[in-house]
Protein backbone atom coordinates (compact mmCIF):
# COMPACT_ATOMS: atom_id res chain seq x y z
CA UNK A 1 0.00 0.00 0.00
CA UNK A 2 1.39 3.40 -1.01
CA UNK A 3 0.47 6.68 0.67
CA UNK A 4 1.73 10.25 0.80
CA UNK A 5 1.92 12.07 4.12
CA UNK A 6 3.05 15.57 4.96
CA UNK A 7 6.47 15.39 6.59
CA UNK A 8 7.37 19.06 6.79
CA UNK A 9 6.81 22.61 5.59
CA UNK A 10 9.08 25.61 5.35
CA UNK A 11 9.34 29.14 3.95
CA UNK A 12 11.15 29.97 0.74
CA UNK A 13 11.82 33.26 -1.02
CA UNK A 14 12.51 34.32 -4.60
CA UNK A 15 14.90 37.08 -5.66
CA UNK A 16 12.03 39.56 -5.44
CA UNK A 17 11.76 38.62 -1.72
CA UNK A 18 8.27 37.19 -2.18
CA UNK A 19 7.62 34.48 0.40
CA UNK A 20 6.18 31.04 -0.38
CA UNK A 21 5.24 28.14 1.87
CA UNK A 22 6.58 24.85 0.58
CA UNK A 23 5.01 21.59 1.76
CA UNK A 24 7.03 18.39 1.75
CA UNK A 25 5.17 15.11 1.25
CA UNK A 26 6.73 11.69 1.54
CA UNK A 27 5.42 8.69 -0.33
CA UNK A 28 5.76 5.47 1.58
CA UNK A 29 5.05 1.91 0.62
CA UNK A 30 3.91 -0.65 3.17
CA UNK A 31 4.66 -4.24 2.32
CA UNK A 32 3.50 -7.05 4.62
CA UNK A 33 6.29 -8.99 6.28
CA UNK A 34 4.93 -11.97 8.14
CA UNK A 35 1.68 -12.10 10.04
CA UNK A 36 0.26 -8.72 10.93
CA UNK A 37 3.61 -6.98 10.41
CA UNK A 38 4.40 -4.16 7.97
CA UNK A 39 7.69 -2.74 6.76
CA UNK A 40 7.58 0.90 5.70
CA UNK A 41 9.85 1.75 2.77
CA UNK A 42 10.23 5.39 1.75
CA UNK A 43 10.01 5.85 -2.01
CA UNK A 44 10.39 9.57 -2.66
CA UNK A 45 9.69 13.09 -1.45
CA UNK A 46 7.58 15.56 -3.40
CA UNK A 47 7.09 19.29 -2.86
CA UNK A 48 4.09 21.57 -3.37
CA UNK A 49 3.08 25.12 -2.58
CA UNK A 50 0.04 25.77 -0.40
CA UNK A 51 -1.81 26.47 -3.66
CA UNK A 52 -1.01 22.85 -4.75
CA UNK A 53 1.47 24.05 -7.40
CA UNK A 54 4.17 21.48 -8.04
CA UNK A 55 7.71 22.31 -6.92
CA UNK A 56 10.90 20.54 -7.93
CA UNK A 57 13.87 20.28 -5.60
CA UNK A 58 17.09 21.48 -7.26
CA UNK A 59 19.41 21.05 -4.29
CA UNK A 60 19.28 21.25 -0.49
CA UNK A 61 18.27 24.94 -0.55
CA UNK A 62 16.89 25.79 -4.01
CA UNK A 63 13.50 24.81 -5.43
CA UNK A 64 11.78 25.45 -8.76
CA UNK A 65 8.10 26.40 -9.07
CA UNK A 66 7.36 24.58 -12.33
CA UNK A 67 4.29 26.57 -13.40
CA UNK A 68 6.05 29.93 -12.95
CA UNK A 69 9.54 28.69 -13.84
CA UNK A 70 10.66 30.53 -10.72
CA UNK A 71 13.55 29.55 -8.49
CA UNK A 72 13.00 30.04 -4.77
CA UNK A 73 15.43 29.50 -1.92
CA UNK A 74 14.65 27.88 1.43
CA UNK A 75 14.72 30.31 4.35
CA UNK A 76 16.69 28.83 7.20
CA UNK A 77 15.11 29.56 10.61
CA UNK A 78 17.06 31.74 13.04
CA UNK A 79 17.20 28.77 15.41
CA UNK A 80 17.22 25.40 13.70
CA UNK A 81 15.23 22.40 14.91
CA UNK A 82 18.50 20.64 15.73
CA UNK A 83 19.49 23.45 18.11
CA UNK A 84 16.05 23.43 19.79
CA UNK A 85 16.30 19.65 20.21
CA UNK A 86 19.83 20.00 21.61
CA UNK A 87 18.67 22.61 24.14
CA UNK A 88 16.02 20.17 25.39
CA UNK A 89 18.61 17.39 25.50
CA UNK A 90 21.02 19.64 27.40
CA UNK A 91 18.41 20.45 30.04
CA UNK A 92 17.61 16.75 30.38
CA UNK A 93 21.33 16.11 30.90
CA UNK A 94 21.50 18.88 33.52
CA UNK A 95 18.51 17.40 35.34
CA UNK A 96 20.24 14.03 35.36
CA UNK A 97 23.43 15.59 36.75
CA UNK A 98 21.40 17.43 39.40
CA UNK A 99 19.88 14.10 40.42
CA UNK A 100 23.37 12.58 40.75
CA UNK A 101 24.49 15.60 42.79
CA UNK A 102 21.47 15.22 45.08
CA UNK A 103 22.30 11.52 45.55
CA UNK A 104 25.88 12.41 46.48
CA UNK A 105 24.78 15.02 49.02
CA UNK A 106 22.26 12.54 50.44
CA UNK A 107 24.87 9.84 51.13
CA UNK A 108 25.49 10.94 54.76
CA UNK A 109 21.77 10.65 55.50
CA UNK A 110 21.64 7.28 53.73
CA UNK A 111 24.66 6.22 55.80
CA UNK A 112 22.81 6.97 59.04
CA UNK A 113 19.80 5.01 57.79
CA UNK A 114 22.01 2.05 56.85
CA UNK A 115 23.78 2.12 60.22
CA UNK A 116 20.50 2.34 62.09
CA UNK A 117 19.03 -0.56 60.10
CA UNK A 118 22.04 -2.85 60.43
CA UNK A 119 24.63 -1.83 63.01
CA UNK A 120 27.69 -3.26 61.31
CA UNK A 121 30.66 -1.36 59.83
CA UNK A 122 31.15 -3.69 56.85
CA UNK A 123 27.54 -3.35 55.78
CA UNK A 124 27.53 0.43 56.09
CA UNK A 125 30.87 0.89 54.30
CA UNK A 126 29.82 -1.44 51.50
CA UNK A 127 26.53 0.43 51.16
CA UNK A 128 28.32 3.79 50.83
CA UNK A 129 30.88 2.48 48.31
CA UNK A 130 28.08 0.94 46.25
CA UNK A 131 26.29 4.29 46.28
CA UNK A 132 29.44 6.14 45.17
CA UNK A 133 30.08 3.63 42.36
CA UNK A 134 26.48 3.96 41.15
CA UNK A 135 26.70 7.78 41.13
CA UNK A 136 29.96 7.73 39.13
CA UNK A 137 28.52 5.25 36.60
CA UNK A 138 25.37 7.35 36.20
CA UNK A 139 27.45 10.49 35.58
CA UNK A 140 29.57 8.73 32.94
CA UNK A 141 26.50 7.23 31.28
CA UNK A 142 24.82 10.65 31.26
CA UNK A 143 27.80 12.21 29.46
CA UNK A 144 27.86 9.42 26.88
CA UNK A 145 24.11 9.76 26.31
CA UNK A 146 24.31 13.56 26.16
CA UNK A 147 26.99 13.79 23.47
CA UNK A 148 25.66 10.88 21.42
CA UNK A 149 22.17 12.42 21.36
CA UNK A 150 23.22 15.93 20.30
CA UNK A 151 22.04 16.61 16.73
CA UNK A 152 23.80 19.91 16.05
CA UNK A 153 27.55 19.71 15.71
CA UNK A 154 29.95 22.64 15.72
CA UNK A 155 31.83 22.88 12.42
CA UNK A 156 35.13 23.48 14.19
CA UNK A 157 36.68 20.41 15.82
CA UNK A 158 38.62 22.77 18.08
CA UNK A 159 35.42 24.42 19.35
CA UNK A 160 33.86 20.98 19.80
CA UNK A 161 36.80 19.93 21.97
CA UNK A 162 36.70 23.19 23.94
CA UNK A 163 32.95 22.89 24.62
CA UNK A 164 33.31 19.32 25.85
CA UNK A 165 36.31 20.19 28.01
CA UNK A 166 34.52 23.16 29.59
CA UNK A 167 31.40 21.05 30.29
CA UNK A 168 33.50 18.31 31.90
CA UNK A 169 35.51 20.80 34.00
CA UNK A 170 32.36 22.55 35.26
CA UNK A 171 30.82 19.21 36.19
CA UNK A 172 34.00 18.00 37.91
CA UNK A 173 34.29 21.26 39.86
CA UNK A 174 30.65 21.04 40.99
CA UNK A 175 31.02 17.45 42.16
CA UNK A 176 34.38 18.24 43.77
CA UNK A 177 32.69 20.91 45.91
CA UNK A 178 29.91 18.46 46.78
CA UNK A 179 32.50 15.81 47.65
CA UNK A 180 34.36 18.24 49.93
CA UNK A 181 31.09 18.80 51.79
CA UNK A 182 30.15 15.12 51.88
CA UNK A 183 33.47 13.35 52.45
CA UNK A 184 34.01 14.31 56.15
CA UNK A 185 30.60 12.82 56.96
CA UNK A 186 31.27 9.42 55.39
CA UNK A 187 32.85 6.27 56.81
CA UNK A 188 34.76 4.66 53.94
CA UNK A 189 37.01 2.22 55.81
CA UNK A 190 35.96 -1.11 57.38
CA UNK A 191 38.69 -0.91 60.03
CA UNK A 192 37.76 -0.26 63.65
CA UNK A 193 34.90 -1.34 65.84
CA UNK A 194 31.85 -2.99 64.28
CA UNK A 195 29.57 -0.76 66.37
CA UNK A 196 28.91 2.21 64.09
CA UNK A 197 25.70 3.94 65.13
CA UNK A 198 27.32 6.14 67.78
CA UNK A 199 30.23 6.93 65.45
CA UNK A 200 27.89 7.99 62.65
CA UNK A 201 25.86 10.19 64.95
CA UNK A 202 29.04 11.81 66.27
CA UNK A 203 30.19 12.85 62.78
CA UNK A 204 29.90 16.52 61.63
CA UNK A 205 26.45 17.65 60.49
Question: Can you walk through the features of this model?
Answer:
This protein is α+β, with helices and mostly antiparallel strands. The protein has 2 domains: 2-74, no CATH class; 81-201. The chain contains 4 helices and 6 strands, in the order E-E-E-E-E-E-H-H-H-H. The chain has helices spanning 81-117, 121-149, 157-182, 197-201; strands at residues 2-13, 19-32, 38-49, 54-57, 62-65, 70-74. Strands 1-2-3-4-5-6 form a 6-stranded antiparallel beta barrel. Helix 1 packs antiparallel against helix 2 and helix 1 packs parallel to helix 3 (157-182). The longest helix has 37 residues, at 81-117. The mean pLDDT is 78.
| Global morphology | elongated
Q: Roughly what fraction of the amino acids lie in strands? A: 15-25%
Give the CA-CA distance, first to last residue. 68 Å
How do the strands line up in the largest sheet? Answer: 1-2-3-4-5-6
Order of helices and strands: EEEEEEHHHH
Total domains, how many? 2
User: Mind describing the biggest β-sheet?
Assistant: 6 strands, antiparallel, barrel
The average pLDDT score comes to: 78
State the helicity in percent bands.
Answer: 40-55%
Give the tally of β-strands.
6
SS-based structural class? Answer: alpha+beta
Q: Are there runs of 5+ residues with pLDDT below 50, and where?
A: none
Number of distinct helices: 4
Cα-atom radius of gyration: 29 Å
